[in-house]
Amino acid sequence: MNYLSIPGEVEEIIRISKREESYYVLEEDEGLKKILDELLDSRILVCKVRAAFSLGDENIDFQWAPSRIGSKIYEPSNEELRELVVSKYLLPVKISESAEIDLSALDGGLTLIVGRKGSGKSNLSKTLIVRIIEHGGRCLVFDINGEYEPTAMRSKFLVLKPGENMFLSIAGLGKELFITLMETIMGLPPSSVWELRRILDSLENRGSLNLKNLWNEVFFGKFNDLVKEALIRRLTVLKESGLFSDEATDLDKLLREVSDKAIVINLRGLPKPFRQLIVETVLNKVVKMLEDGEIKPLFLFAEEAQSYLDEKTWEDYITRMRHIGLSVVFITNEPDSLMKFVYRQADNCFIFSLMNENDLSYISKMSKIDAESLMSLVPTLPVGKCLAFGNVTNNIPMVLSVEKENVFRTGGTRKVLLEAVSRN
Ligand SMILES: Nc1ncnc2c1ncn2[C@@H]1O[C@H](COP(=O)(O)OP(=O)(O)OP(=O)(O)O)[C@@H](O)[C@H]1O
Ligand SMILES: [Mg+2]
Questions:
Q1: CB–CB of 114/332 below 8 Å?
Q2: Is the separation of the CB atoms in 42 and 4 below 8 Å?
């Protein structure tokens, strides 16, 4: 928003400073004084045409300039805008008193939530999850900050913490997946993979496939010392991780049965290889069950996705997701850490405040929004407000405020000084 620049601006400025003296003549004429004051205070709004709606015509093409005589310039009311935009949504859902999105656009799509630390990304994620569940959808969340733990959230979220109330077993993973994970995550060399497979086969035949038996077989087995050492080192890490137990969590059952809550996997504090192990295990299960039609479509919320799976693996999942009924929401505060293909393929974006110019230009290069809009709108967004575009807003970029879900109190950065203040 700028002040209307009237020709002779300097003259105007001088006139303002001399106002008292120069206006005395007009003092009597209140009407004229009011008009002059208004003129002096006029502002001009520089706008960008986002869409054109012509009455009776659904088209939002705007290659033409409207007639100057036949048009009227005014600010449409909320109701009017709602009628023009929101009424076209397939599933309009409120994310605050004043803002609605088309929730159906998340279904089968790829969605991004980006913004700097503390800008309100997690709050929006939780709001979306709650809305999805309310509408009969099912959600899976990879939580790296452990922010779904508080008791107040138990009615909406089922939190699984690996090593505490979630355990893996070799039998549950399946022989092939276990071998793949040992190769890719634990870096087991090919020479040892052969031996591992042999031992697993024999354990499976005897119906005693578990980590303890595997460890014993390796430890007391008679084979090449280097191979043995490579296996023992890795199996020791697995044993000590506390992630494996004979009474493994029945993920299949959970995925099939839990429908009124989001399943949250709390990855907080786990070293990267273990995060990767858990995430790969869960995603493998999910994808397989979706492919076999064993479970209904699922929404996956992944915070800082790059911190537990690499680019190639994600690209693989994203390529397959649309066909199998997996909708993915990526959430990050480091826009350039997200893979480029994610931006190009994104169907929906929610951009919260970002100050860094590199981040902004990175996003504008990758996604369906122009740099100008991004630069002018995003840096000044307050906490809880975001620029949304894509199918969620019928392809019209909109600044939306998100309501603060008041049961969700954690997730913000912990501050020791303020905690001390509130104690006193
Ligand atoms: N819509 C909102 N209205 C008011 N306060 C909000 C809103 N959204 C978030 N907040 C507050 O701002 C703080 C940060 O919110 P949130 O945890 O959602 O940010 P974030 O972007 O996920 O941050 P981080 O990058 O650290 O994960 C929280 O204390 C939260 O209560
Ligand atoms: Mg967060």
A1: yes
A2: yes
Asked whether residue 395 carries a pLDDT value surpassing 90, the answer given is: no
Question: Would you place residue 102 in the very low, low, confident or very high pLDDT band (cuts 50, 70, 90)?
Answer: very high
Identify whether the C-beta of residue 329 lies closer than 8 Å to the C-beta of residue 128: yes
Cβ atoms within 10 Å, residue 235: 22
Residue type (1 letter), 33: K
- The 8-class DSSP code of residue 106 comes to G
Whether 123 lines ligand 1, by a CB cut-off of 6 Å, is yes
Q: Contact 295/173 with Cβ under 8 angstroms?
A: no
pLDDT in tens, 249-294: 888 888 988 888 999 999 999 988 889 889 999 998 899 999 999 9
Span from the CA of 357 to the centroid of ligand 2 (angstroms): 21
CA distance 322 to 303: 20
Query: Residue 139, Cβ neighbours under 10 Å: how many?
Result: 23
**DSSP, res 304:** T
Whole-angstrom Cα distance, residue 60 to residue 49? 11
Q: How far is the CA of 187 from the centre of ligand 2 (A)?
A: 31
Mean model confidence pLDDT for the chain:
85
Rounded to the nearest whole angstrom, what is the distance from the C-alpha of residue 120 to the centroid of ligand 2?
A: 7
- Out of 383, 409, 413, 414, give the residue to mutate to test ligand 1, the one with the largest number of ligand atoms within 8 Å of its CB: 383
Which pLDDT score is estimated for 273? Answer: 86
